[in-house]
Amino acid sequence: MKSARKILGVFSLLVATCIVTSALTPYFLTAYNVENLLRRTSLFGVISIGAAFVIIVGGIDLSIGSVVALVGCLLPWLLVEHGVPIWFAVPGVLLLGLVLGLCHGMLVQRVRLQPFIVTLCGLLIYRGLARGITGDQTVGFQNGYKGLRSIVKTRFEVPGLDGFAIPSTLLILVVIATLAIVFLRFTVWGRHLLATGRNASAARHGGVRTDRYVVLAYVICAGLAGLGGMLFILDVGSAQPADFGNFYELFAIAAAVLGGCSLRGGEGSVIGVIIGAALMQVLQNAITLIDWIPDNIQYAVIGAVIIAGAVSDEGFRRFVLRRRAGSP
Amino acid sequence: MILQARNIVKRYPGVLALDGVDLDVTAGEIVAVVGENGAGKSTLMKILAGDVAPDEGRLLVDGEATRFGSPREAIDAGVVLIHQELSLADNLDVGANILLGREPRTGPFLRRAEATSRATAALRAAGLDLEPSRSVAELGMGTRQLVEIAKALSTDARVLIMDEPTSSLTAAEADRLFETIERLRDEGTAIVYISHRLGEIERLADRVVVLRDGRFVRSFERAEVTRDRIVESMVGRDLAADAGLRADVTFESGPPRLEIRGLRTARHPGHAVDLKVRPGEIVALAGLVGAGRTELLRAVFGIDPRTAGEILLDGEATRIGGPSDAASAGIALVPEDRKADGLLLEESIAENLVLPGLARTATGGIIRRRSAERGLAETLLRRMGVRPAIPDLQAGGLSGGNQQKVAVGRWVGCEPNVFLLDEPTRGVDVGAKAEIHALLDRLARGGAAVIAASSEMEELLAVSDRVVVMHEGRIAGELARHEATESAIMRLATGGVDSGDVRRSETSS
């Protein structure tokens, strides 16, 4: 119920932002722009769902952006510069994401390091590796690999809506979100994961192997960051290792928190996270489209909107509590 | 008369912690306050030290009525409580801890020389030859306890209240502490001393005040103090086991369902514990706070690692590497702190009830039917008699007793063979207590081996077939139902039959 309220909150914020933006600029509600928004939201949705898993078990992953960069740069580097076949390169880079997650999980759970430290170091290391391996040179598909890139480039025309098509990335997001929802709500593992985040000690006393679920969450997070990295590079075609994926971890964490994940753990909904990711994209889009907001202050605007959302959420919570206390 | 407490009353929800207690403290005297767990000792000390405000009654300092709004005000009046859990910041040095909050300063700057000399003087007074610049982290528990005393003395304390100061000290450290206490007494400080260890009380106390169920029972002058007299007045009534629920239970000789063999824990490495429990038997685990009951149960369930020993179920050695192994072997633990370890307070009752048994309602990890899960929750709700029986209610919204029924009930669905319960009725009202007792009885009659650790004498006597008493990490003795009386239990729990015994066991550990 608590998360339903949070979803409703972030959804209202999303709708309000959309209405205000479309009132301020005619370009917002164009077929091209909406399709583009859907595509970007889908890509960010994938990595945000990963971030949500880690946050649900009470952890944090700051390395998402660097995993995106490492995987995203390695893929064209392997394919184009080294002629590695697709059937090897694609599973390889995806596996790399999972392995990095396993490392994070083991360091947090077995070595008992703090998640913040582990993934902060991940952020530095993978970024450094991406730049080192590629020699800090831009990597890209150079108009090749059209078949592979069609994974994200395919558009499904909607009859009757001129110029609008559903991007294939949206379907990818739907598949991943469905899997995540089934996992969290309908499997024993998902429930154990939520219980671990809510109260690890109580879950452990209940016979839950809390250590495994913590590791699993990091594997899922980095795995989805890796998948996201692949999708991002297929989408944009080329990347500079120095800035590809920069700040993506913060967008993912912000989306997860906006969508109802508590940094204390135990709470979170996949739908909420996706709405959170959409809100982040709409905000960025609005700043780009509205003339009188200079583009270079976009982070400041995003930060301010998130803070405003959190403050009103907290205010609303207290208001409800007071009402409840007042009328027994 | 430095400090007088008159007619102190303190109520907590559901409990009358103190019911009209008087206490006088005189300069140059050691007053020991004793009583069973829950007799009201700690509450009284907190009131004397301004930690807690009494609901009724008054405090007089030097004959003048006073009200302590905070520990700070009590300290200013010269009354200092040294907490059971030490409160030193171990990232600071000794001197900084002693003067914390009262540092001599000029503007924002510490007057270093003066701080050092004041801290040194306080350390001397506490009988410690220690540099104030030493780090607290590298000090042993005994020395830390003395640093706490130095800290108290540096505030010009006239009344020192010590709550179980020796609970984590070695015998040698305790001796050093006693010498310091006696010297302070001779120099005119008043000492209020709380301890479960009657040997210490015999050695130190000039006067012993006995509390029971929140009331003053009587006081003994030094010449009258003997262990037996104290124990007798602590327990008061001498109920033998009123066999009640379990009167008709008899056992045939057979293999034990649970056997604990040579189990050692990190907390009490010096003592191995052996214990056998037959199917259908309820063993009550008695002992004072810190006797090692919780550690024993946690080690059997695999929450804490064992340092040695094995667990046998129905005669077979069973590997228990963690709680999930224990759960799948059919062992259940209902932990002492249900809020921290037992329940997910923010989740629904149903969610809590099905958590350990969740895997049973699922095929290959997918929960087959929500309705199966729902059905399990509803069955358990009914069987446990949880009120209100609303599966979707937040567990945190239930009363203590009903929360406890949920904490027990979540295991019932897994049909364990061994039930371990740590303080199953703590903070539970009388009605719910009786229901939980009946529940334990039913579990045992279903063939489970039950171990229930409890600090409540009546509970120990009412729902057990056998009482096993622990003292400082070892099993001090065992009493069959017909032998179990409050004073027999208390005698074992306070360290054996005579005071010589206590000292021997302490030095051997």
**Total number of distinct structural domains of chain B:** 3
Q: What composes the largest sheet of chain B?
A: 6 strands, mixed
Strand order of the largest sheet of chain A: 1-4
Point out poorly predicted stretches of chain B.
498-509
Please state the structural category of chain A.
mainly alpha
Please give the most extensive interface between any two protein chains, plus how many residues each contributes.
A-B, 21 and 28 residues
What kind of assembly state do the chains in view correspond to? heterodimer
Shape of chain B: globular
Radius of gyration of chain B: 25 Å
Number of strands of chain B: 24
Per CATH, the architecture of chain A is Orthogonal Bundle
Low-pLDDT runs of chain A: none
Fourth-level CATH superfamily of the largest domain in chain B = P-loop containing nucleotide triphosphate hydrolases
CATH class of chain A: Mainly Alpha
> What can be said about the biggest beta sheet of chain A?
2 strands, antiparallel
CATH topological fold name of the largest domain in chain B: Rossmann fold
Q: Could you give the count of β-strands of chain A?
A: 4
Total count of helical runs of at least 4 residues of chain A: 13
What does this structure look like?
The complex is a heterodimer of chains A (328) and B (509). By secondary structure, chain A is mainly alpha-helical. Helices cover 74% and strands 3% of the residues of chain A. In chain A, the strands form two sheets. A two-stranded antiparallel sheet of chain A has the order 1-4. Chain A has a two-stranded antiparallel sheet with strand order 2-3. In chain A, a hairpin with a 7-residue loop joins strand 2 (155-157) and strand 3 (165-167). In chain A, helix 11 packs across helix 12. Chain A starts with a helix and ends with a helix. Chain B has three domains: 3-235, P-loop containing nucleotide triphosphate hydrolases (Rossmann fold, 3-Layer(aba) Sandwich), CATH 3.40.50; 244-330 and 416-508, Rossmann fold, CATH 3.40.50; 345-415, no CATH class. In chain B, the strands form six sheets. Chain B has a six-stranded mixed sheet, sandwiched between helices. In chain B, strands 18-21-22-15-23-24 form a six-stranded mixed sheet, sandwiched between helices. In chain B, helix 4 (112-125) crosses helix 5 (141-153), helix 5 (141-153) runs parallel beside helix 6 (171-186) and helix 13 packs across helix 14. The chains are: A mainly alpha (328), B alpha/beta (509). Chain A binds chain B through residues 2, 182, 186-189, 191-192, 195, 198-199, 201-209, 266, and chain B through 301, 303, 322-324, 326-328, 333, 335, 340-347, 351, 355-356, 358-359, 362, 365-367, 410.
